[in-house]
Design a protein that fits this description.
Distance between the termini: 106 Å
Largest sheet: none
Helix content: over 70%
Shape: rod-shaped
Order of helices and strands: HHHHHHH
Oligomer: single chain
């Protein structure tokens, strides 16, 4: 009797497992299909709004986004590569200077990346002309490096300004077209007015979205540049102190 019950329970368990597996597969398949449908519907909705906003103005806004993002991403990569461990760099220059002299310090700076290492190298190149000349060289080349860090930000700010203006221009033109339709129809139809205004405002929304996205990248780059410049200034002071100590040591 007990054997029969166990066999029945085992069969029930097997049947349950066999039924659960296809159900789970169906659920995963249904979830994947829903994701695909949702993605395609979102793509279709964006495409529809793009067409409703007017291909000309919306294309201009999208171009602002593409070019602005391209420059912003390039700047983000460049700034992150330019950001180095300044404390470690200063310690390395000091060790190289004390152990191998100015040539060893220049070789160490030549093998390092970033604007701080380049500034140190330019300063060490003028070491034989005195510490005052090193200070002037560091200051001058620091301005050059700062210009390289800020390169491209003007274009990002330009696209930030242009994108909303293009959107507003599309909105104004759309409103004019809506009033032209009202004048031609000779009737103040709510449906006619609402449709024209909706199409006109889509360009404004697109321009504002583009400006917001690019503004985030612009602020990030600006903050990153400020941090790098502060490190450059602190490191320059440290280099001059190291050279003064080196001169006193070898006097």
């Amino acid at each position: 009797m007990l054997m029969a019950q166990e066999e029945t329970a085992a069969e029930t368990t097997e049947m349950t497992a066999d039924e659960i597996a296809p159900a789970a597969e169906n659920a995963v398949s249904a979830s994947s299909e829903e994701d695909v449908v949702e993605s395609s519907s979102m793509h279709a909705a964006i495409k529809q709004k793009f067409i409703e906003g007017g291909a000309g103005f919306m294309a201009a806004v999208v171009l602002c986004l593409i070019f602005g993002l391209a420059i912003a991403i390039e700047r983000v990569l460049y700034l992150n590569l330019s950001d180095t461990n300044v404390k470690k760099l200063v310690e390395g220059v000091e060790d190289a200077l004390n152990n191998g002299g100015v040539e060893a310090a220049k070789e160490f700076c030549r093998n390092q990346r970033g604007p701080v290492a380049s500034i140190f190298y330019q300063g060490l190149m003028r070491y034989d002309q005195g510490v005052d000349m090193v200070e002037k060289s560091v200051t001058s080349y620091g301005s050059v490096q700062m210009g390289l860090l800020e390169k491209g930000l003007t274009w990002i700010s330009l696209f930030i300004a242009i994108a909303p203006m293009l959107g507003f221009l599309g909105t104004v033109i759309g409103m004019i077209q809506a009033f032209d339709q009202i004048q031609a129809a000779g009737d103040m139809s709510p449906a006619l007015v609402a449709g024209g205004i909706k199409v006109a405002l889509i360009t404004t929304v697109g321009g504002l979205i583009v400006a917001i996205i690019l503004q985030v990248f612009f602020n990030y780059c600006t903050s990153k540049i400020e941090g790098i410049v502060n490190n450059m200034e602190d490191a320059s002071v440290s280099l001059l102190d190291i050279l003064v100590k080196y001169n006193q040591k070898n006097a």
